[in-house]
Specification:
The structure holds 2 protein chains of 2 kinds. By secondary structure, chain A is α+β, with helices and mostly antiparallel strands. Chain A contains 7 helices and 4 strands, in the order ααααβααβββα. In chain A, helix 3 crosses helix 4. Chain B is an alpha/beta fold. The mean pLDDT of chain B is 97. Classes of the chains: A alpha+beta, B alpha/beta. Bound molecules: flavin mononucleotide (FMN) and FE2/S2 (inorganic) cluster.
Chain lengths: 148, 405
């Protein structure tokens, strides 16, 4: 596993690149660990409060630990009318957790999101940013079982 | 009979979007060559004359925007808005996936016009694969020498709709919370790192190579006179062909939905269409014979916006859909200005009450009053547009609200 200092350093040449650093950290850890946030603030010359303010502004960034697989359900109007509510209920039931929670084994986190720009195949979910198309409640077990 | 007119997407799926060589084989980078041979003022005049207007929503004349950039500033930036946050929209992704080099060429043409050496593409966090594609496309273009000394860097957003607003986008590239700035100063004068900055949408940039290669008059002759060219529309909701089309801007909404789109799904009847994304107005059947261009849409109280076309069939509960939309705006409000922060909260609260069957006609009056206040007092387009779906449905589909009250 890459060291968070190396990850942050790889972005330091980018002016204003703290968000790029946060993305790189999340690619490794799935969230931004506290120590890494403090280090990023130092490297990019902003206060910890400012860095925290940035990290918590964006819905794709998280300062709390999340599961190995982050399942996001698009709730925007086109997915909504295509049956997003039923899909999210099926995911919650199958994993036995609610939106915003992580399974006890640390494998899955469920989040809601807005349109991810794949509206040709609604309803859409993403698994670690990879879109899955035309999801139905019936397909949910198979889709989640494929996450090893 | 409406037909597609493919200009930006002419070579879709026939060339590798990452490859500059492929693009050059089909005539790519000719526009940039032409631009470089022109005097800067003549270049800006040519773009002005083509009538190209912004495809990101505001419809501002592109050449005009460039002409505001002060010539004596030592550093200037070209920024491409690939935030594409408007629900129901994916045309900028399609342009990148089919013709990424045209975007790079368009940015370099803008760079030539305002004498900028550095471009940024701000790509939404939902498209990590597009970020990769663009990085490869830039590499290929640099290696081929096509871009000359013009550099382009890709930055990734992180799931905030408001970052599509140009000054919030600039804040985000600078590494800050994506909160809009007060205008003026406009980005053309004081933008990224306080330097003059042109922000244009992906589709706007992608139009430029052909404008330069074929001439302003050629472009001005396509589609609607006052908003010429083609527009890529994305069809969603209860529509047979839920896909994208590139059409001349004088095509009617009815043709988009019933000819290209194949009509309402499963043979049901049409109820409403929301054009321009989730911040657009809902349009009833009687207005469908309107052209999709910016001004025609404006004349029926709607907006072309991003070109999203969201169709609802006769069975859909409009109040429920609009309640869902009101949650979107509450969630996406950045909280900087009071009319939007409190306004989107109250709109959602009242909509939920009405949707649950607990509303009164007083609630509808309050929604309309609050709509007016937000349209006048919100800092940016987010808060100004948030009440439009509500206001337009109370206007055109009042009976749907009354049924729930
Ligand atoms: C809340 C909000 C979201 C916006 N989102 C986008 C977007 O995703 N893409 C875009 O090109 N323009 C978006 N805009 C419009 C931009 O502020 C700006 O007008 C546009 O990028 C200018 O480019 P153009 O002149 O080429 O259209 C948004 C505006 C607002 C107020
Ligand atoms: S509305 Fe769900 S992907 Fe666009």
């Amino acid at each position: 596993m890459a060291n968070y200092k190396d990850i942050i350093n790889s972005c330091r040449e980018k002016r204003g690149g703290i968000i790029e650093a946060f993305h790189a950290l999340q690619a490794e850890y799935n969230y931004i660990p506290q120590d890494a946030l403090v280090e990023a603030a130092r490297v990019f010359g902003v206060s910890e409060a400012q860095a925290y303010g940035v990290a918590t502004f964006y819905s794709y960034l998280s300062v709390e630990n999340r599961g190995k697989y982050i399942i996001r359900m698009c709730e925007s109007a086109p997915c909504h009318v295509a049956g997003a509510d039923a899909v999210i209920r099926a995911i919650e039931n199958y994993l036995d957790i609610k939106v915003g929670e992580t399974t006890a084994d640390g494998k899955f986190t469920i989040e809601l999101c807005e349109c991810i720009g794949q509206c040709q195949a609604t309803p859409v979910i993403t698994i670690n940013s990879q879109p899955v198309f035309n999801v139905t409640p019936e397909k949910v077990p198979e889709i989640l079982d494929a996450c090893k | 009979m409406a037909e597609e007119l493919r200009v930006l997407l002419q070579y879709a799926d026939q060339i590798n979007p990452e490859s500059a060589d492929d693009y050059v084989k089909v005539g790519g980078y000719k526009g940039l060559e032409k631009a470089r041979s022109m005097d800067r003022k003549a270049l800006i005049d040519e773009v002005k004359k083509s009538g190209l207007r912004g495809r990101g929503g505001a419809g501002f004349n592109a050449g005009m925007k460039w002409s505001f950039v002060p010539q004596d500033a030592p550093i200037k930036y070209v920024v491409c808005n690939l935030d594409e946050g408007e629900p129901g929209t994916y045309k900028d992704r399609i342009i990148c996936e089919k013709n990424a080099q045209a975007l790079l060429e368009g940015m370099a043409i803008c760079g030539t016009a305002i004498s900028s050496k550095q471009g940024y593409i701000y790509c939404r966090g939902e498209y990590p694969f597009v970020v990769e594609l663009l990085k490869n496309a830039i590499k290929s273009a640099k290696a081929s020498g096509a871009l000359g000394d013009f550099d382009i860097e890709v930055r990734m957003g992180a799931g905030a709709y408001v970052c599509g607003e140009e000054t919030a986008l600039i804040e985000s590239i600078e590494g800050h919370r994506g909160e809009p700035r007060f205008k003026p100063p406009f980005p053309g004068v004081e933008g990224l790192w306080a330097a003059p900055t042109v922000v244009n949408n992906v589709e706007t940039f992608a139009c430029l190579p052909n404008i330069l290669a074929n001439g302003a008059e050629w472009f001005a002759g396509i589609g609607a006179t006052r908003y010429p060219g083609t527009k890529i529309v994305t069809l969603t909701g209860d529509i047979e062909n839920a896909t994208y089309f590139e059409v001349p801007t004088n095509v009617t909404l009815r043709d988009v939905i019933f000819t290209l789109g194949g009509g309402v799904k499963n043979g049901k009847k049409f109820k409403a269409v929301q054009v321009g994304g989730t911040s657009g107005a809902f349009i009833p059947e009687q207005n469908l014979d309107t052209q999709i261009d910016f001004d025609s849409m404006g004349s029926i109280g709607a907006a072309l916006g991003s070109g999203a076309v969201f169709v609802l069939d006769e069975t859909r509960d409009i109040v429920d859909v609009v309640t869902r939309i009101s949650k979107f705006f509450e969630h996406e409000s950045c909280g900087k200005c009071n009319p939007c922060r409190e306004g989107t909260f109250r709109l959602r609260e009242i909509m939920e009450k009405v949707n649950a069957g607990r509303g009164t006609t007083q609630d509808m009056d309050n929604l309309l009053l609050l709509s007016k206040v937000m349209q006048k007092a919100a800092l940016c387009g987010l808060g100004q547009a948030a009440p439009i779906p509500i206001e337009s449905t109370i206007k055109h589909f009042r009976y749907e609200y009354l049924r729930k009250i």
